[in-house]
Amino acid sequence: MTAVRELDGANAGGQFVRTALTLSVLKNRPVRIANVRGDRSTPGLRHQHLAVLETLAELCDADVSGAELGAETIEFDPGLESTAGASDWRGQGPGRLPGGEYAVDIGTAGSATLLFDTLLPLASVLESQLSVTVTGGTDVSFSPPLDYSRHVKLPLLRRIGLTAVYEVDRRGFFPDGGGRVTLHVAPSELESIDLTERGPLEGVRLYSTESESLADRDVAFRQAEGAIERLALEEHGLELLERRETAVASPSPGSAIVLRVDHGTGIAGFAALGERGKPAERVGEDAADAANRFLEDAADQPAPVDRHTADQLLVYLALEGGRVRIPAVTDHVVSSCELLAEFGASVEIERTDAPADDEPALVAVDSPIDL
């Protein structure tokens, strides 16, 4: 019997739980997570975390305990049968993780994009295409907006061999959610990552979205105008490569804007969500302010990716090895690296001269997780 890997989430949040469950499936190793989301004001599983747990359990017919709202301890055992004594998916040769079609209803405005983040790394062990339709929030606080996921993250992952697309039926803004999106993931052979330098800046792409109920107020247009006015394009010799304003079906009024900065080696994304009482122009300015900070980075070795993308690339770095220069050593980065090391990755964080959390650092994995 494979020993249960004991994990402690006392100093971590939902990302720790999601990544641990994904790695449990990839490694076919049972895990027990205590103190789930222990550093949050409301610890334990919330709707979106429960949806992740239940979805992964359905995908591999896992044995689970603690699958309930508020649970602070969960156990997850993929219980996968392997051949020739193998203990993981790749060891089974052609018998990898089955694909198929699944439907998930988060039941709230809980983030669909964060649930999708747990599924994307499974591309490396899929036997056939996996399609998961999620009903929930697509553009909500504390998670990447849908346009960030499909216009920033997926294009970057395609560069390392991951094949996936989104099919969008409707958007779901806070507080009602109700968005409906399908993620299609194909079996993929991933490559190592090498993102250590920022290449020449090329241009900016803008995606501004409003619910149809806000179309008469020109919210998407005003967000875009606010962003363009604030962006220092001429100062950095950049072009506006794309500008897209969209009114979308949604059961909740809401808006979002995503700016994508293209450069020679990578992609960086910056987003802001509309808020009740906040002028649409200011929403665009907030996204532009974040992009300008990236463009004005005067560090000797500026990071080629934004902070959020850096966090999300770490699991792929652990799976295939490589190096990524990140803009800051955040708490998420520290807890993620510690978790990846628990599963066998040799993770090193090489900081700049001063070990400050807000300084760029190089994250390197010479010995990836053995699958």
From TrEMBL:
Keyword Protease: no
InterPro entries according to UniProt: RNA3'-term_phos_cycl_insert, RNA3'_phos_cyclase_dom, RNA3'_phos_cyclase_dom_sf, RNA3'_term_phos_cyc, RNA3'_term_phos_cyc_type_1, RNA3'_term_phos_cycl-like_CS, RNA3'P_cycl/enolpyr_Trfase_a/b, RPTC_insert
Protein residues bound to ATP: D117, H308, T309, A310, D311, Q312
The RNA 3'-terminal phosphate cyclase insert domain, residue ranges: 196-295
Record-level Gene Ontology MF annotations: ATP binding; RNA-3'-phosphate cyclase activity
One cellular-component annotation, GO: cytoplasm
Pfam families: RTC (PF01137), RTC_insert (PF05189)
SUPFAM superfamilies named among the record's database cross-references: EPT/RTPC-like, RNA 3'-terminal phosphate cyclase, RPTC, insert domain
Function recorded in the entry: Catalyzes the conversion of 3'-phosphate to a 2',3'-cyclic phosphodiester at the end of RNA. The mechanism of action of the enzyme occurs in 3 steps: (A) adenylation of the enzyme by ATP; (B) transfer of adenylate to an RNA-N3'P to produce RNA-N3'PP5'A; (C) and attack of the adjacent 2'-hydroxyl on the 3'-phosphorus in the diester linkage to produce the cyclic end product. The biological role of this enzyme is unknown but it is likely to function in some aspects of cellular RNA processing.
Family recorded in the similarity comment: Belongs to the RNA 3'-terminal cyclase family. Type 1 subfamily.
Species of the source: Natronorubrum halalkaliphilum
Keywords associated with the record: ATP-binding, Cytoplasm, Ligase, Nucleotide-binding
Active site, UniProt feature: H332
GO BP, one annotated term: RNA processing
EC annotation from Swiss-Prot or TrEMBL: 6.5.1.4
Protein name: RNA 3'-terminal phosphate cyclase
